[in-house]
């Protein structure tokens, strides 16, 4: 399988530096540093949409570490340059983007082209896709985990944005990653099983997927999900590849799975349809507009294309649908 759009690890996280006491302030003062400013999960993009619009710290007056209540993150190093992220999603209370813009540093955000990672991740180069995936994952975590998991007090970021610590009892909370399996299920005739989710746009079909439950191996999770969602029995399960899917915190673990039964029974709640497709049937359904596949950034499309043996048209639908 080719490199997945959100799994291009070219930035050195340089994790050993996160504990340096003045790391964020030092890097902010370094004119070589580049900064990714994220607000409400939206990536600032160049006009052609193919690059992140990264900024030098001196262009971001009022947004530096210590200037407010945003979260600052050390993303890592690449080509001897350091990269930081400012996560404005964590603005407290009624502070608005306009309020920040009034300070000057974020004024450009109001006019710059912006996009969501799941829509544009495949268009970005290796460095930008890596920076964006890490920043979005950490932004989602900080936004959803403001309180101590032990006592409920508000926690504060430490370790250059990679830990949150409770001021009352010292508990350290680390970023969460939730394991999810996603599988290309095929039968002895070489057909693939694709399903339509109850809350998806019309005609969208994709591979089955689901979260790994406590006490499960990945292989068990694959077999359980296929049985629960489609009523199909699977025996052989083989790992293919993984990619982070930080919407908000998943790691998608891709598998091939071989079905030993072909009768399909959907639950009618999570899934409203599931069908077997030959390559010819899928091609015909795509041409007729009866089937729309997942978006280009997804591992789902990569798994389907691997089975198909060639490139297929990705869904043009915007994210969140
Ligand atoms: Zn606590």
Automatic annotation (TrEMBL):
GO function term, MF aspect, one: metal ion binding
Q: Give its E.C. classification number.
A: 3.6.1.22
Q: Which PROSITE patterns match?
A: NUDIX, NUDIX_BOX
Q: Which domain of life is it from?
A: Bacteria
Report the record's Gene Ontology biological process terms.
Answer: NAD+ catabolic process; NADP+ catabolic process
Q: Which GO terms describe its cellular component?
A: cytosol
Q: Which Pfam families match?
A: NUDIX (PF00293), Zn_ribbon_NUD (PF09297)
Arranged from A to Z, the UniProt key words for this protein are:
Hydrolase, Magnesium, Metal-binding, NAD
Which reaction equations make up its catalytic activity? a 5'-end NAD(+)-phospho-ribonucleoside in mRNA + H2O = a 5'-end phospho-adenosine-phospho-ribonucleoside in mRNA + beta-nicotinamide D-ribonucleotide + 2 H(+)
Known cofactor(s): Zn(2+); Mg(2+)
Q: Does the keyword Hydrolase apply?
A: yes
Q: Where is the Nudix hydrolase domain?
A: 175-299
Return the broad EC class: hydrolase
Which family is this sequence assigned to? Answer: Belongs to the Nudix hydrolase family. NudC subfamily.
* Name used for this protein in its record: NAD(+) diphosphatase
What organism is recorded for this protein?
Answer: Actinotalea fermentans
